[in-house]
Amino acid sequence: MDRLTEMEAFATVVDQGGFTDAAKKMGISKSAVSKHVSSLEARLGARLLNRTTRRVSPTEIGLAYYDRARRVLNDAGEADALVTSMQSAPSGILRISVATDFGVNHLSPVLGRFLQEYPDITVNMVLNNRYVELISEGFDMAIRIGELEDSSLRARKLTETAQRMIAAPSYFEKYGRPAKIDDLNEHKLLHYSSQASGNVWKLTAPSGEKRQIRTAGWLSVNDGQSLLNAAIAGLGIAYLPSFLYHKAMKQGLVEDAIPDLPTEMQGIYAVYPPGRFTQPKVRAFIDFLVEAFQNKGPLDW
């Protein structure tokens, strides 16, 4: 007889507390269930069930075998579900959390093509500037920039972006240009208040030394575009990703604050809940984004 069927019959008898209910659960006859269990006991050379006229219960050996058998059956079920999932067409509502700046500038422009390729998926994109709790808040995935804090989530790198300190020429004319990292203590800094690290800038000196600059800052904003606007207005030095400042720098609206410093690179990741397999709609969207961004290099467009 099939080993898995024998195992399933035995485990179902234990779960249901008897052969009659197990037969109903499996959709086969009571005699067939009994035959499967007897065959299993004969093959193992051990009695797995105590049978009385009133009840059926596992023996000590049967209970130990049940624990392992249930794990094997669950794994087999998940393997079947994985194959079914991978072959099914992506569909359903895809709820995404993404930072406002990145969502507006780089995710929204490519969504149309994705929806045309996957007409059975409905996208609900939520723009916010905080780290949402994916599972408890009902999100399928999120796009996150920089260091990933929650190691329990699965992540796939989409691309990366350069991050530099920038300010307007008018600011440098009024306050001078910092020559080194320590000079920043004498300048007006503009902070991104939603950044997980707070008012701390992680920089690399020309020597390669890693530095952390912690200052109160003159202005804190929870929106990157507003922070860029403040820098363009000459209010101070901002530390921003290139996908925000690139166009303004090409137009001469902002400049490098300390040009000699090495460029800091930040990864841009798709993160999603852990599990043995990924939902088709999530996998389809991540694959689409990887392809959309793979030829862009460091994100400065």
TrEMBL record:
Q: Which InterPro entries match?
A: LysR-type_TF_proteobact-type, LysR_HTH_N, LysR_subst-bd, WH-like_DNA-bd_sf, WH_DNA-bd_sf
Q: Which residues form the HTH lysR-type domain?
A: 1-59
Q: Keyword Transcription regulation: yes or no?
A: yes
**Do you know which Pfam families this protein is assigned to?**
HTH_1 (PF00126), LysR_substrate (PF03466)
Matches recorded under Gene3D superfamilies: 3.40.190.290, Winged helix-like DNA-binding domain superfamily/Winged helix DNA-binding domain (1.10.10.10)
Where on the tree of life does the source sit, at the highest rank?
Bacteria
* Keyword DNA-binding set for record: yes
Q: Which UniProt keywords apply?
A: DNA-binding, Transcription, Transcription regulation
A single GO BP annotation from the record? DNA-templated transcription
Q: Name one GO molecular function term.
A: DNA-binding transcription factor activity
What family is this? Answer: Belongs to the LysR transcriptional regulatory family.
- The name of this protein is HTH-type transcriptional regulator DmlR
